[in-house]
């Protein structure tokens, strides 16, 4: 099992904790505060370093670029939509966590996600 060493704050003043890579839904670079965050279905964590590093390091674990500020774990996608925006959803509920994908990456992500999850819902 692979782990990510993260903190719950951007200052790093709290202690590092390890979260399983497979629990991570997506990792995002927040342009407004120039930080990289890892998201699970229950929490948000801070990761040190640039998103490009994490995109390369986590490719072997099924992460792909959703857009220039986002990498997503393909196996966690449960549904996808093109309207009103290109989105990937991590559950099949009305309040599911979702991320917006770039138009150019949508088709590629759709094919990859269908390979992991034959029951993926497209709408």
Automatic annotation (TrEMBL):
Q: Which residues form the HTH LytTR-type domain?
A: 14-114
Its Gene Ontology molecular function terms? DNA binding
Q: Which domain of life is it from?
A: Bacteria
Q: Which residues form a coiled coil?
A: none
Span of the signal peptide: none
SMART domains listed in its UniProt record = LytTR
Q: What is this protein called?
A: LytTR family transcriptional regulator
What is the originating organism of this protein? Cohnella fermenti
Q: Lineage from the top down?
A: Bacteria, Bacillati, Bacillota, Bacilli, Bacillales
